[in-house]
Amino acid sequence: MLSSLIPVLLCIALGWLVARIGWVRDAAIKDLSNLVFLVLTPALLFRTMGSVRLQDLDFTPVVLYFSAVAVLFIGTMLVRGFSTRSAAEALSCVFGNTVMIGVPIIQFTFGESALIVLFTLVSLHSLILLTSATLIFELASEREARARSGTADSGVPLWRTVLQAARKSIIHPVPLPILAGLIFAQTGLQLPAGIDKGLQMVGSALSPMALLLVGISLAYTRIGHNMRAAVAITIVKNLVMPALVLAIAPLLGVSGLPLAVMFVIAAMPVGANVFYFTQRYGVMQQEVSASIAASTLVALATLPLAIWIAHLLQG
Questions:
Q1: What is the DSSP string of 157-206?
Q2: 96: helix, coil or strand?
Q3: Which end of the chain is more exposed for a tag (fewer CB within 10 A), N or C?
Q4: Closest CA to 206 of 106, 305, 114
Q5: How far apart are CA 176 and CA 308, in angstroms?
Q6: Residues 177-188 pLDDT 10s
Q7: pTM for this predicted structure
Q8: What is the pLDDT of residue 68?
């Protein structure tokens, strides 16, 4: 377990160090993120899924993961009330960093075969969560607008907003190369050796680069006065969600490597996409930003525990 975790922690620590000594400035984070998400990630996703047959995919672990998501999201909304603020909190509790941190950890810990299990989830992760979240946010936002002004509605059909959200969730640097790779695999064709080798070289840079970027981002992030909200979200995301996955797994008959992968992915810290939602709807921006930083820092301690438990689950 330690042998697979040490490279992860080392890359994050190096990223933090080069940022603290000024070799990488805050202004460069956006450009580095674009490199990771727009170049390195699609290369790895397409090449990995480009040799997978649809009949070989098992979606039961994905059902397990989203069952835990549904329980936490709905539960949070019921406890906090139906509002854009509670929707932002609920999304923070279930939307994990499945790519930037999830991919390298799964790859280092369980090997290349586990990536297929992970990418099956990743192909639906943003599509389902972001589209569902858009629906909830729009309904809550419209309700709040009516309460403030007494107007009937915003004038924009809800179905059109949700359809646009679904389209944007598919035309995205994570789901799109997975879907493209799966479609290519069904043709039975093989990539030319030179192209395949090039994609392999580019894709292999994703894990270390993504982890370095995590460390760099942590060096420039401050939790500030939002500690209470950040801690509450971190406890739910880093601890409660993986525990819920573990509790539901026997009901769906998920075990072995698929359960180990889903359990570790459920323990991932809050993903950055949540912050984009808070910016769009103007709610909980500081709290969510602090939660992303806090849950990532806490994950340095909780993920080793999750990986240890996952190895026991794998047998």
A1: -HHHHHHHHHHHHHSSTTHHHHHHHHHHHHTT----HHHHHHHHHHHHTH
A2: strand
A3: C
A4: 106
A5: 32
A6: 878 888 898 888
A7: 0.80
A8: 96
- Asked if residue 158 lies in contact with residue 139, where contact means CB atoms within 8 angstroms, the answer is yes
- Model confidence at 168: pLDDT above 90: no
Q: For residue 273, what are its two tokens? A: 């996409």
Using DSSP's 3-state secondary structure scheme, residue 81 falls into coil
Enter the tokens of residue 272.
């950055």
Concatenate the DSSP letters of all residues of 6-62 into one string. HHHHHHHHHHHHHHHTTSS-GGGHHHHHHHIIIIIHHHHHHHHHTT--GGG---HHH
CB 230 within 8 A of CB 293: yes
Burial (0-12, 13-18, 19+ Cβ within 10 Å), 107: buried
Tokens 């139906």: give the residue.
Answer: 82
Question: Rounded to 5 degrees, what are φ and ψ at 96?
Answer: -100, 165
Other beta carbons less than 10 A from residue 111's beta carbon: 11
**What's the one-letter identity of residue 247?**
A
Instruction: List the structure tokens of 66.
Output: 């989203």
Among 315, 170, 182, 215, CA closest to 256: 315
Tokens standing for residue 215? 């460390």
Mean pLDDT of 269-283: 79
Amino acid at 200: Q
219 token code pair? 């060096």
The Cα–Cα gap between 134 and 145 comes to: 16
| Residue that the structure tokens 């301690």 belong to | 301
CB burial of residue 266 (10 Å; 0-12, 13-18, 19+): buried
Cβ atoms of 296 and 214 within 8 Å: the answer is yes
Q: How many helices (H) and strands (E) does the chain have?
A: 16, 0
Q: Spell out where 86-149 has E strands.
A: none
